[in-house]
Amino acid sequence: MIDEAATRDRTSAQSDQTVYLHIGTMKTGTSFLQHVLLRNAELLEADGVRYPLDGRGWALQVRAARDVLDIKGMPTQGGWDAMVDQIHAWPGHSVVSMEFYSLASPVRAKKVAAGLAPSRVEVIITARDLVRVIPSAWQSMIKQGHPWAFPDFVDSITGESHSAANDAHRRFWRHHDLVGITRRWAAAVGAENVHIVTVPPSGAPPSTLWERFCSVIGLDHPERYDVSQDRRSNFSLSYSDSELMRQINIALRDEIGRVAYKRWATRYFANRVLRASAGERTAHDRPGLTPAAHDWAVHRSQEMIDTLDDLGVHVVGDLAELMPARAPAGDAPTEPMTVYPEGAVHVIAALIRRIAEVDPQLPERKAMSAGLQDQDEAADAVAAREADDEAAADETYDGDPDLDDTDLDDSDLDDTDLDDTNLGDADLGDFTLTSDDAPSAAGRGAAS
């Protein structure tokens, strides 16, 4: 939560500092930029720019965003003030990069800007064309546990049908309504302090996006920094693997909790197992839009470009890059290249289910270690506690009533990116299974 008294004192002060607040949007090269910033943090400080970190690296910025946005169901009190204190202790400028700020309501956006006072706040919004964003967004939502087939997901976004739940439409446009996000932040900090950085077309070197970013934050020699990519900053599942995950989601539906799913389905199976097998085939196995959906994206993009041009914000790159490229000849791919056997889905789902049952770090297992020896009894106790926590949050919550932790797209983050506010323990390799499926001694020690 923001320290309101400290905010009032800072607002009345003067400062030459600028905080460059990079808010996404999601699926626009943010992971690449964040890894470059993290990898070059010391060199950035030598050049006068701080990228706030703590002992767990970028987790400080994750906690700060969750705290200041007051996201229902995910308390992280103190995270925001810890980051702000670090920013103000630095004599130069600072860069914060966290996509969750793009979800801020108008009131929250203004509170974020006020909370960074007396520093000047300039907002950076990276933007990418819809034809490239839509498949990436679908993949991320699949990795969050949703069951939507890609054609249904696209229909929900474009309004061609209602075959997918309305929730898909709401979630996509909450994350990717570029005009709405720009307007909210322009109202909070002034249009003159908002920079839209367009993501270069496919085929451009990744360094181009970094060079554009550097031009906003005042770094004159972007070539000084290491912009090499690793598997974490350039990772996506193939269409085939995403469809496999979708079917696993259906098989696991309502059978394991949200924490267990993120820990074992997303961060272990998707982000470790499937990531390790990702290769050249991924580039040729991607879902594509139908000609009708592509035409819709072109029309919607032109409307968006025209509106953004009228808002008076600073553009780095070219708004024309938000216009989708011409549709390829022939039909877009409508089926994954690889169809996994149905039995594979059930086997993988069963393994994830069983691992979740014996994971000593999940809430149910911790409840058992506290004296509830029956698995069902422990699960009931955890559910009751979560219900009590939710009721208490409803009484005190003053954030966005429509925003909770399920809106946060952290599906591309692995255990090293996050703190333990959502996982219980960030180390996924903290226990092994014995012959009787009980946690090992090392696992029991971790849980105690």
Considering the chains and any ligands shown, give keywords for the structure.
Rossmann fold, single chain, 6 strands, alpha/beta, 6-stranded parallel sheet, globular, 19 helices, about 450 residues, disordered C terminus, about 50% helix
Topology (elements, then pairings):
Layout: H1 4-11, E1 18-22, H2 30-39, H3 41-46, E2 49-50, H4 59-68, H5 79-89, E3 93-97, H6 106-115, E4 120-127, H7 130-142, H8 150-158, H9 166-176, H10 178-189, E5 194-198, H11 207-217, H12 239-252, H13 258-277, H14 281-284, H15 291-311, E6 314-316, H16 342-358, H17 363-369, H18 375-396, H19 441-447
Parallel strand pairs: 1-3, 1-4, 2-3, 4-5, 5-6
Helix pairs in contact: 4-5, 6-10, 8-9, 10-15, 12-16, 17-18
Concise summary:
This protein has 448 residues and is of the alpha/beta class. It has helices at residues 4-11, 30-39, 41-46, 59-68, 79-89, 106-115, 130-142, 150-158, 166-176, 178-189, 207-217, 239-252, 258-277, 281-284, 291-311, 342-358, 363-369, 375-396, 441-447; strands at 18-22, 49-50, 93-97, 120-127, 194-198, 314-316.
